[in-house]
Amino acid sequence: MIDLKFIGLDSNQVDRITSAGIELMSAITDGIGSDKGIAVWDEFSSALGDDFKHAIFCAMLNGHQSGSILVGRGKVDDTTALVALIKAIRKYTGWGLKEAKDFADSTYTCERTLKVASGSRSDAVREIRSTGATAN
User: Mind listing the pLDDT tens digit of every residue in the chain (136 residues)?
Assistant: First the structure.
């Protein structure tokens, strides 16, 4: 999780802004070149502050844009929450019931990496967190 508490954002806002920032930088660099991408990148710090620019950069380094989500259930042992987690996993991965259940069961003892489409990462994180599991 990126810590942007200094500007009063909650975790869902942080995920949305980080994803959008990464997508914007990728689109500019791919579409009009790295020189323009660097120019826009430099403007992030002047417009929003170095901390914000740093948060986006760290998210890029940590694979935030790749669609990887670190999922953990901890000691939550609620059947309703487990069913909701399995449904969310199936929705964002396209997996079958057995594969999604096996993944969800494995998050009880340790965090696991879940791969989803990068464009749906923020929605997947939000839905997984709504089940009581952790998603970063």
Answer: 444 544 677 766 776 777 777 778 878 888 888 888 888 888 877 777 777 777 777 776 665 556 778 888 876 678 899 999 999 999 999 999 999 999 999 988 888 889 888 778 888 988 999 999 988 7
Evaluate whether 27 touches 37 at the Cβ level (below 8 Å): no
pTM listed for this prediction: 0.57
Give the span between the Cα atoms of 59 and 18, in whole angstroms. Answer: 7
Are the CB atoms for 131 and 85 separated by under 8 Å? Answer: yes
Say if CB 103 and CB 112 are below 8 A apart. Answer: yes
Query: Quick one: how far is CA 54 from the chain centroid?
Result: 16
Cα of 44 vs its chain's centroid, Å: 20
